[in-house]
Each structure stands twice: as structure tokens, then as C-alpha cells.
Design the sequence.
């Protein structure tokens, strides 16, 4: 259920609102790996993250371009999650990922510095569950070169969220949950369903 809701969020928010212009291609090609961890503590989650990072390093990009590690049971408090990111970055560097993989962060209560918790612009990084996103730096560099105004993405996303509004965002989040329920029931949904098999 957590994986289905997360992928619905990718489809409806990340791609649907064009928050990341680079996401559609890898989603359509089935190159996103979405893994739900049952980790209930930081140590277990860190091992899972390092394992997924190593797996990504060992996998051909045409088979898997990027990994979403969803962890519903640990770091549900955004402050704790934010503190964990430094630990995660250090572990990835020790693994030899510096300059090769990049870690992006998403959380249901994500809050940018200088914003209020209820500021709708925080929703650009708000996922259904706490999620660590591993990306290949080489692929990011190629995507940025192909997108002439990459530096404008952040400002565009802020404007998108302000136009959507809190009610619009809540409706979108509800639709993601509905998509996940429908998928669990075997009903067709409007979202793309191209996740890579294990």
C-alpha cells in the first residue's frame, strides 16, 4: 500500500504537477525502484539505505535509474528525519557514493527553512511517507544540460503550489490514497503503473 501510494504521488504530484521535469521519462521506462522498508529504528534504516545504494551502483542505469526508499515506521517526526540526513550522507560517502549518487529528501511534514508548517510551498517535498531518494549524479547532470532553465525549477514549483493552494494539495493527496486503494483492490487507475519487478 505504501509503495502504491508513493508511486501515485510520483504520478500525480511529481510528474502531474511537473515538479521534476526529469521524472516522466524514467517513470515511463520503468526505471524507478520503489522499496518499502519495515525498519523501526535508525540503524536498520541506515543499513537498508546503504544496501539500496550499493544495489543501484551495481545495476545498469537502463534497468534502474533511481530508487525511492520509503520508511513508514521510522523518522516520522520531520525534525528527527532532517537530523538523520547528515548521518545518511556520511554513510553514503563512506560507501564511495560521493560524486556518484545523490540523496534527495521527502517527508509528509517537510518544511523549508524560513517557512511556516502550513505554508503550501512546503508541499513540493511532501511525500505520503518519509522517503529517501537515491539519484545518479551523472544522470542528473545530463538532465540539467538538456533542460536549459533548470535553475528556474524551484521558483516554478513554488508558483505551482501557490496556485494549487492548500485545498488543491489535500485533494491531490487524497487522490493518491484512492489510487493505492484501487490498485490494492485490482481496479484500474489513471496513474502510470510501470514499477520494475524485484
Sequence:
Amino acid at each position: 500500500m505504501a509503495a502504491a501510494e508513493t508511486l501515485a504521488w510520483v504520478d500525480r504530484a511529481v510528474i502531474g504537477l511537473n515538479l521534476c521535469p526529469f521524472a516522466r521519462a524514467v517513470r515511463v521506462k520503468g526505471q524507478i525502484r520503489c522499496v518499502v522498508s519495515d525498519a523501526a529504528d535508525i540503524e536498520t534504516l541506515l543499513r537498508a539505505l546503504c544496501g539500496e545504494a550499493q544495489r543501484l551502483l551495481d545495476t545498469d542505469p537502463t534497468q534502474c535509474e533511481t530508487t525511492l526508499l520509503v520508511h513508514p515506521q521510522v523518522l516520522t517526526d520531520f525534525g528527527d528525519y532532517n537530523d538523520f540526513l547528515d548521518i545518511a550522507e556520511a554513510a553514503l560517502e563512506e560507501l564511495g557514493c560521493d560524486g556518484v549518487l545523490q540523496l534527495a529528501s521527502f517527508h509528509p511534514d517537510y518544511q523549508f527553512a524560513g517557512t511556516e508548517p502550513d505554508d503550501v510551498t512546503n508541499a513540493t517535498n511532501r511525500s505520503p511517507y518519509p522517503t529517501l531518494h537515491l539519484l545518479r549524479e551523472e544522470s542528473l547532470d545530463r538532465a540539467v544540460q538538456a533542460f536549459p532553465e533548470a535553475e528556474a525549477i524551484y521558483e516554478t514549483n513554488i508558483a505551482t503550489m501557490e496556485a494549487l493552494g492548500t485545498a488543491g494539495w489535500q485533494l491531490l493527496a487524497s487522490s493518491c490514497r484512492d489510487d493505492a486503494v484501487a490498485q490494492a483492490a485490482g481496479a484500474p487507475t489513471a496513474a502510470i503503473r510501470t514499477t520494475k519487478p524485484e
About this structure: The beta strands are 32-36, 66-70, 101-106, 131-136. The CA atoms of residues 50 and 106 lie 18 Å apart.
